[in-house]
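Hey,
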Amino acid sequence: MFGIGLGVGAVISQASRMMGVKPAGDLRKPVPPGTEYVGVRELGEQMARPGGFTSEDLVTYLQARIRKLDPALSTIIELNPQALEIARELDRERMSGKVRGPLHGIPVLLKDTIETGDTQQTSAGAFGLTGTAARKDGFIVERLREQGAVILGKTNLTELAGFRGGPDGWSSRGGQTRNPYHADAPVGGSSSGSAAAVAAGLAPLAVGTETSGSIIVPAALNGVVGFKPSVGVLSRSGIIPASHRQDTPGPMARSVFDAALMLNAMSGSDPDDSANIDAPKGIDYTALLKPGALHGKRIGYPATFCAKGESLSVDNSPQFAQALEVLRAQGATVVPVNMRLADASRYGELLFADVKDELNDYLAKRQGLPVKSVPQLIAFNDARDGAATEHQPVLKQIEASTLTPEEREPLWDALIQEFRGTLDELIDEQNLDAVVSDFETNSYFAVAAAGYPGVSVPSGKNDDGEPTSAYFFGARWSEPTLLAVAHGYEQAAKVGIKPVL
């Protein structure tokens, strides 16, 4: 079972370690309860401390927690069988004096649209995309590994990142992701598993991806920090695509600081992603996360917001009204604004046509999958799940798209410039550092369409005990300032919510 040449003592020691039990004579401390909600900086300090727990200990602890809790949550679609081996090697590096960075030995979950060149599948939750594993790591996964992160596993999601058609958080491979705060509460999509896993303390960090709201929405609904950077800040190479005009990965964490650490780790120059070429490089996104970051900042907020189809004043949202008070108390000037709405009438038509071309191209290049095109995927799903009931309406709409790339290009250019204009006018005319809105304004859609950055930060709970959030957004490439504003709010608000599991 354990191989030839191991003595009895070594067998007991190895078996104990595999089970998460400390063998006799091991002076390291066990991972204490509550560690699942500790931040990255403190985890690193614990691993650096003589007698502290190791990365292997932490991975073992989280794996046990996942096996205990995740059957009821369905946040994780697959665990990485190499995680413990990777953690041990990183522990050996630490013991020898080599520490790669703040994420050295820190477990990270990846959305199941992000390729890993190991034994794990990259399937977007779809059985039609299972088969031979991807040939190599996606660019951001390479960067995470270089920085010493331990890839713990892949997270569940809305199948095909929402482009099959089905409930938020459901995939055929992973089942229905549940909100850790309440099983019947909305979980959001499509990075549902990434958000819910971090909220449930199954990993300190996760990576999501967004085309339009897929990081921001589940982060808000599950009470975690979700950061969607400007399109191009992070490479999309090695990620199942929807639209190169809109797609971006982004960090999901329990604090703005940890999200900024992840942004640092994943950033880099990727010549294979044209949007990444012009993005700012070499930025430390934690540099401005300091006390007093809100002092003197001008932050806009919508005078009214739309909730459940009604236009309401901020007084009707106690959590948002309280968020504005926190900002004022920290020395920020909050300015009521009115956002001009851009014409989004053709957005869906353009997006579906992009998805058709880009998903077809991706499937044609992936080796060892049972399907090679969108029509084959539709047929595969019908054969597997039955054709009598409609179970993939969005995917069929995508296949029915007829706009050619030549027809789409000027329409997309006009639409993106229109959305950017609405945000740039607002920010420039009022001389704003950022804008904050209630999650239910749906302003994240305009920000995504423009390709601009946004961050969701927990702001408390509503009367049903479900998380609420403040959503901050800003101009293109304004990530350092936006993170500083969000961090300043988070530190002053001291919300610190977590579910009772």
